[in-house]
Design brief:
Elements: H1 3-9, H2 44-53, E1 62-64, H3 88-98, H4 103-119, H5 123-139, H6 142-186, E2 192-194, E3 203-207, H7 211-227, E4 231-236, H8 244-252, E5 257-262, H9 264-267, H10 277-289, H11 299-314, H12 321-331, H13 347-355, H14 357-360, H15 364-381, E6 401-406, H16 411-430, E7 439-444, H17 451-464, E8 467-472, H18 477-482, E9 488-492, H19 498-508, E10 510-551, E11 556-596, H20 600-604, E12 610-617, E13 620-627
Parallel strand pairs: 3-8, 3-9, 4-6, 4-7, 5-6, 7-8
Antiparallel strand pairs: 1-2, 9-12, 10-11, 12-13
Helix pairs in contact: 3-6, 4-5, 7-8, 10-11, 10-16, 11-12, 11-15, 12-13, 12-15, 16-17
Length: about 650
């Protein structure tokens, strides 16, 4: 099983377990049910989950590592070989059977035997002798010998097959026992390992995912950080309370949890405690500037800074949003002074602001921008007030969790609040208000803030020594340019949109793969059967004659000689041959392809808690499938340390 398959199998049907069996969130409705604060036996799973989540080292999820395949048995490539019994005896008997028999001699022998028996005067004896001769000849004939040889060969083959089947069964049993032994050993090995970042980046960008997935990721990541005494600040712009589960589990562990609701917490706050007049003007101008399309007139930023700074410097008392909006109304000449002095501004403050009207300018461009700044500031000032907020630097408490949420029924005020709080945090990072290396800032739902704002936050967080985590729902053009920045890692969760999934797959990269595109199997058999017959006949005649004569003193002699000879030779040969040849050819063609390491459809099919981690670590760039489901803490075969192969 691959890591991707394992992550998929731990999918949606396990999603409810990641909160220890608590109810699922349903948007804004019923979010209070996502964390149980009651007592009794029902809280025991939650308490045990809190104990496990807040222990161990920092992790982003769990990586599934399949146990290794059992190694091959030493005899795996040496199966028993079937040995065909020799058919030499059959071939020899077949050759003898094909030789022509001298049937005439056999018939003569039979007739002679029968005649002798008749001469003896016994017909029965004659028949018995003939039958006996035929029986003897039938049992010793070449055809009979061939049949017996073939029967013996079949018996030998049956015995050889039986022996080969027994040896094959024993061989298979040895291989199966070897495999079963290693499989039993694999059942004792860990399969889920903590997913850690080997590169230790200062920024992590998370793209895609859902509110439930982000909640699980924050629990898995934030638990070990808080457990080790670090401070975590979550700026939640999603209105989905993605840090609610983490806050509930932290409360079970006795960890200090603070909630700062925006924009209500800004209403009664004296901004002068955190900003100088110039810093406040720059922060508010940056927030307003991020609402304009890229490439807008940069002079507007200067006008925004000028008007806000002018009013802030003219105020003698606290600089609150309400008083700042009133001062902007004075600049715009639409302020109605209260004759009793019960208004937000004192008479002296009104006079100070009025004297600065000519310094601002009366041009149409300035007046239009002044109206815009005044309208946006009044929009914030009209929010429902809550308890006054503390300075941003106090949000980072050692071992504490601070949740900063922005919620409002008015969309424009919600959008402006998101931007002002974001740049307020950016200002705190510029001021080095956080001790380096002690805090983690999570910004959830910052897609609409724009590329420049995200890059500015990343630069300042890196300079201030604060770990920064962006949770971005979409991988659009602006966010795509942010991904893969300096000293960063990237995490992809479920990408529902096809184009975004394709963009994520392209970011993850491509690799060469060898795929089988053709399999061929060719089986052939050839059978050859031949027979040859040769016959030679040779006959020779020789004739020699001779004579001699002679004389002498005593007389004469004469003689002659002659010789005649005939030679006859005859030979014949009859041979047969049979051969069988079998051949099997198997072919496999591979193609080298350059394809996505992770297909877009895989990113679209990820479970809610599934993720793909991409980072450039000490060992090179790596792509890892993981699962941030907190319920993995209850699963068996879970390791407390990262996989051994991790540098």
């Amino acid at each position: 099983m691959s890591a991707a398959d394992a992550v998929t199998e731990s999918g949606d049907h396990e999603d409810h377990e990641r909160r220890g069996g608590r109810a699922e969130p349903g948007g804004d409705k019923g979010r209070g049910d996502r964390v149980s604060h009651g007592g009794g036996a029902e809280d025991e799973p939650g308490a045990e989950l809190a104990r496990r989540v807040f222990g161990g080292e920092e992790r982003w999820g769990w990586e599934y590592v399949a146990p290794p395949e059992p190694p091959a048995h030493p005899d795996a490539q040496r199966p028993p070989v079937y040995v065909e019994p020799s058919d030499a005896e059959v071939r020899a008997a077949q050759e003898r059977a094909t030789v022509g028999r001298n049937t005439k001699g056999v018939g003569c022998l039979t007739l002679l035997a029968g005649g002798g028996a008749l001469a003896a005067g016994s017909v029965g004896l004659a028949i018995g002798v003939v039958v006996l001769i035929f029986i003897v000849m039938a049992s010793t004939s070449p055809q009979a010998q061939l049949r017996r040889a073939r029967h013996r060969l079949e018996d030998d083959r049956a015995q050889a097959r039986s022996s080969h089947a027994a040896r094959t069964k024993a061989w298979q049993a040895r291989l199966a026992a070897h495999r079963d032994e290693h499989l039993r050993h694999n059942e004792t090995l860990d399969t889920w390992y903590p997913l850690v970042l080997a590169s230790r980046p200062s920024r992590i960008d998370v793209f895609g995912g859902t509110g439930n997935g982000w909640a699980s990721l924050l629990v898995t990541l934030g638990g070990p950080l808080l457990g080790r005494g670090q401070s975590v600040v979550v700026l939640d712009l999603t209105q989905q309370a993605v840090a609610l589960e983490l806050a509930g589990l932290a409360a079970r562990r006795g960890i200090a949890v603070s909630h700062v609701p925006m924009p209500g917490a800004l209403i009664g706050m004296d901004l002068r405690e955190e900003f100088t007049s110039e810093e406040l003007a720059e922060t508010l101008a940056e927030a307003l500037g991020s609402m304009r399309p890229p490439g807008a007139d940069v002079d507007l930023h200067t006008i925004d800074v000028d008007v806000v700074q002018t009013v802030a410097e003219a105020l003698e008392g606290p600089v609150t949003l309400t008083r700042l909006a009133a001062g902007l109304r004075v600049l715009l000449r639409v302020h109605d002074p209260d004759p009793d002095g019960a208004g937000p501004l004192s008479l002296s403050e009104v006079e100070s602001v009025t004297r600065a009207i000519d310094l601002i300018g009366q041009g149409e461009r300035v007046q239009n921008e002044l109206r815009y700044v005044r309208a946006q500031t009044e929009l914030l000032a009209k929010a429902e007030a809550t308890a006054a907020d503390a300075r941003v630097g106090e949000w980072w408490r050692p071992g504490g969790l601070t949740l900063v949420t922005t919620e409002d029924l008015v969309h424009r005020r919600k959008d402006l609040t998101d931007r002002f709080v974001f740049f307020r945090l950016l200002h705190a990072l510029r001021q080095r208000a956080v001790p380096p290396g002690t805090g983690t800032l999570v910004v959830a739902g910052a897609d609409h803030l724009g590329r420049e704002a995200l890059e500015a936050m990343a630069r300042q967080a890196r300079s201030a020594g604060v770990r920064l985590v962006f949770l971005l729902e979409h991988l659009r053009e602006a966010a795509a340019h942010v991904a893969g920045g300096s000293d960063s890692a990237t995490v992809f969760m479920r990408m529902g949109n096809g184009e975004e999934a394709k963009a994520a797959a392209q970011f993850i990269g491509q690799e060469h793969k060898f795929l089988v595109n053709q399999l061929t199997r060719q089986v052939g058999e050839s059978l050859t059967d031949g027979r040859s017959t040769s016959y030679t006949f040779q006959r020779g005649l020789s004739d020699s004659r001779g004579s001699n004569s002679g004389g002498g003193t005593s007389g004469s002699s004469w003689g002659s000689s002659s010789s005649y000879s005939t030679s006859l030779s005859r030979s014949w040969q009859d041979s047969t041959n049979t051969s069988t040849a079998q051949s099997t050819t198997t072919g496999e063609n591979l193609s080298r392809l350059y394809e996505f390491t992770v297909e877009p459809t895989q990113l679209q099919a990820l479970p809610v808690t599934g993720l793909v981690l991409v980072e450039a670590g000490p060992g090179g760039r790596r792509v890892v499938f993981g699962d941030c489901n907190p319920a993995v803490n209850f699963w068996p075969r879970r390791s407390a340390t990262p996989r051994p192969s991790l540098p």
